[in-house]
Amino acid sequence: MRDFNAPRLFVHADLPGPVPFDQGQTNYLRNVLRLSPGASILVFNGRDGEWRAEIAELGKKVGAAETVEKTRPQTKRPTLTYAFAPLKQARLDYMVEKAAEMGAGRLVPVLTQHGQVRKINRERLTANIVEACEQCGILSVPVIEEPVALADFLGRLDRPLVVADEALAGEEGDTVAAIRAAGQPLTVLVGPEGGFSEEERALFLPRSVRVSLGPRILRADTAAVALLALVEAALPS
To answer: How far apart are CA 186 and CA 24, in angstroms?
Structure first.
């Protein structure tokens, strides 16, 4: 049974063994959670499963714990790839958090003609992904890649592709069945809020399954949640 009450931290140390905390984690455990040496927490590193650990030291800037017992074995990273046109910061933070929570194992920012953002802060986004994993009990931390042009992304794609295409908004069809028929491992793509250009649509049309997300045009971060929910319904993880 999972422990939903114990604080959960992502660490870089090999497990089992001594677990040093960085200054941010030390501050969080000491000043936010008000924990002290002897308190029990859960730690994971994305490689060695989840472990219960006891805090051994918790000073103003330095902290450490010792592993006690393994609570869950390591899981494999999900095979689902979520590709998306980058958004402005607040909505992008939300999007990558939800993608991690909803089963994406790999996140790929894709540059499109109508996209408003060309660069991302991978360090910030990775921190958001890690926080989502800590809060949601995820053991395999998704990876986020550097932005790539849509044509290059499609050129090296070697798996089924499902595209949420705003041009199909309102059209009837069984989206869950279409996603299920596409097969696994799967890549899904959500475009920019300005939509795909006709040139871009011509690139992915021959090789993709295009789906509608319903009768309304959705904002890109909302579309991400809707599409990933449909993927989970079609291909339960």
So the answer is: 36
Q: Which domain holds residue 27?
A: 8-72
And the tokens for 114? 């109508």
Cα-Cα-Cα-Cα dihedral of 222, 230, 78, 20, to 10°?
A: 40
Q: Which of 45, 72, 99 is the last residue of a domain?
A: 72
Q: Say if residue 23 is in the same domain as residue 51.
A: yes
Number of domains the chain contains: 2
* pTM for this model (two decimals): 0.91
Q: Across 85-157, where does the E strand assignment appear? A: 106-111, 143-144, 148-149
List, for residues 95-113, the tens digit of each pLDDT value: 999 999 999 999 999 999 9
How far apart, in whole angstroms, are the C-alpha atoms of residue 110 and residue 144? 11
Residue 3 forms part of a structural domain:
no
Whether residue 16 is preceded by a cis peptide bond, meaning omega within 30 degrees of 0, is yes
Task: Give the tens place of pLDDT for each residue, 150-196.
Answer: 999 999 999 999 999 887 777 778 999 999 999 999 999 999 988 89
Distance CA 135, CA 4 (A): 9
